[in-house]
Amino acid sequence: MKNIAGIFYNRLEASKAVGDLIHRGFTPRDVSMMMSEETRKQHFHDEGPSKGEQAAKGGVAGAAVGGTLGAILAGLTAIGSLTIPGVGLLAAGPIVAALSGAGLGAAVGGLSGALISAGFTDRDARHYEDLIRKGAIVLIVRTDNEDEILAANEILRLHEAETETV
């Protein structure tokens, strides 16, 4: 399985990229999103928990769920979103399963560990963790289909993301 990572500094472009990925045939189970809680507060308005977030509350033990992520990104929260209190990390999509297993005390190591278990090197995991702390929104698309790898890279770059395939 390959990971295509897109690094965004613009919420609107990240949202558009998710929409285009879904339109192209990727599902919310193929796409994960991570950002700092501070970035979420700056770019997304809290409007109360969405239905996806309400469902996630029951599925992620010990975690508080973050605010609404906007209409397009809300699809990712349908399979779970996770905010780790005191750490300031928000994640949505399949990466949540790896993070929730890390527990609240694992904090930053939980993000690196989740990325490493998804196929990233230790160096790359620390790099993405650092970017998230500095305000980046990171989208990760997982696929093993070569055409989908090319399509995901094209879509992410179209929306001003720095991309990398791991």
Number of domains: 1
Low-confidence stretches: 47-69, 103-108
Counting helices, strands and paired strands, the structural category is alpha+beta
Task: Encode the helix/strand succession as letters.
Answer: EHEHHHEEHHHEHE
Mean of pLDDT: 74
What level of helicity do the residues show?
Answer: 40-55%
% residues in beta strands: 15-25%
Distance between the termini: 9 Å
Based on Cα principal axes, name the global outline. Answer: globular
> Count the strands?
6
What is this structure's SSE topology?
Blueprint: E1 2-8, H1 11-24, E2 31-36, H2 37-43, H3 51-59, H4 74-77, E3 81-84, E4 89-92, H5 95-102, H6 107-117, H7 122-133, E5 137-143, H8 146-158, E6 162-165
Describe the structure.
The protein has 166 residues and is of the alpha+beta class. It has helices at residues 11-24, 37-43, 51-59, 74-77, 95-102, 107-117, 122-133, 146-158, and strands spanning 2-8, 31-36, 81-84, 89-92, 137-143, 162-165. The chain has a six-stranded antiparallel beta sheet with strand order 3-4-2-5-1-6, sandwiched between helices. α6 packs across α7 (122-133). The model is unreliable at 47-69 and 103-108 (pLDDT under 50).
Can you describe this structure in just a few lines?
The termini are close together. Helices cover 47% and strands 19% of the residues.
